[in-house]
Amino acid sequence: MRTPELLRPDWPAPATVLAAVTTRNGGCSEGEFAGLNMALHVGDAESSVRRNRKLVADAFAPDAQFQWLRQVHGNEPAIVLQPGEAPEADSLISSAPGIALCVLTADCLPIFVCNRSGDEVGIVHAGWRGMSAGIIENTLAAMRSEPEDLLIWLGPAIQSCHYEVGKDVREAFLDCAVDSCEQRQFKSAFASLGKQGKYYADLTRIARVKLLRLGAASISGGTHCTHCNASRFYSHRRDGPCGRMANLICIGAAS
Ligand SMILES: [Zn+2]
User: Fold this and answer.
1) What share of the chain is helix, strand, coil (3-state, %, to 5)?
2) Domain presence at residue 62
3) What residue spans of 166-240 are helical by DSSP H?
């Protein structure tokens, strides 16, 4: 077992904001979960996941309390005042120091959010269902910071090189567009495969369109494809049953 490899966002967040994505490297899971699986619900041995989570906690923020989430591909954010039971929601928001907000992914897009002064953070689980249902809009609306004051980093997700979808996914976005201009932008995020009703979808691009429309100006990341990099990332689309990465953000405890 090696030290867990954590991917750190390349974004201009204040130093008090801690953020990381776990990779598959390090950890003690075996078989299809090999490496640093962070999810209890995928069929991996619970003892392995608990050990992996402890390794990550020690490397990321030993004094933080971890807040997990029951993700349902919906559009509800949850505001965390005190860490506790995992709420059923698809994003977490907090202004309290010392709480590590955790979203699990293995192809869906994790969206990291903090404000410029570093006293409000959020993390979003953005798959196509949640995104077309409004999880990005609802999360930004639930934050007390104005969108102009937010810094955003788009984490590892399945990119358009590998994300084949049916026309239902394209139609869901064309239906949720707020106007014809946004609809055109969403259309350009779907490249036809030349097969009937099949497209390569660019979820990261759709997230950018939505975030810019909402007023968020500082958006970085969006370069890592989970499917392309098997040594570093789990990908459900590539592997079928597999582990999950944890996307973590925390306001560092005041020193
Ligand atoms: Zn790819």
Assistant:
1) 25, 25, 45
2) yes
3) 167-176, 180-187, 203-214, 236-239
Q: How far is the CA of 160 from the centre of ligand 1 (A)?
A: 7
Rounded Cα gap, residues 225 and 232, in angstroms: 10
CATH of the domain at 19: 3.60.140.10
Q: Phi and psi (nearest 5°) for 251?
A: -80, 120
Task: Tell me, in angstroms, the distance from the centre of ligand 1 to residue 167's CA.
Answer: 20
Tokens of 230: 């098997």
Chain segment 100-137, per-residue pLDDT in tens: 999 999 999 999 999 999 999 999 999 999 999 999 99
Confidence (pLDDT) at 30: 96
Residue 180 lies in a domain: no
Average pLDDT over residues 42-46: 96
With respect to residue 43, please indicate whether it lies within any of the assigned structural domains.
yes
The percentage of the chain sitting over the pLDDT mark of 90, rounded to a whole number, equals 96
Q: Which residues of 107-133 are buried (b: 16+ CB within 10 A; e: fewer)?
A: bbbbbbbbbeebbbbbbbbbbbbbbbb
Q: Who surrounds ion ligand 1 at CB < 5 A? A: 159, 161-162, 225, 227-228
How does residue 1 score in pLDDT terms, banded at 50, 70 and 90? Answer: low
Q: Using the mean position of ligand 1's atoms as its centre, give its distance from the Cα of residue 14 in Å.
A: 30
State which residues form the domain around 47.
6-161+225-251
Give the residue-averaged pLDDT of 171-184. Answer: 97
- Residue 194 inside a domain? The answer is no
With H, G, I as helix, E, B as strand and everything else as coil, classify residue 195: coil
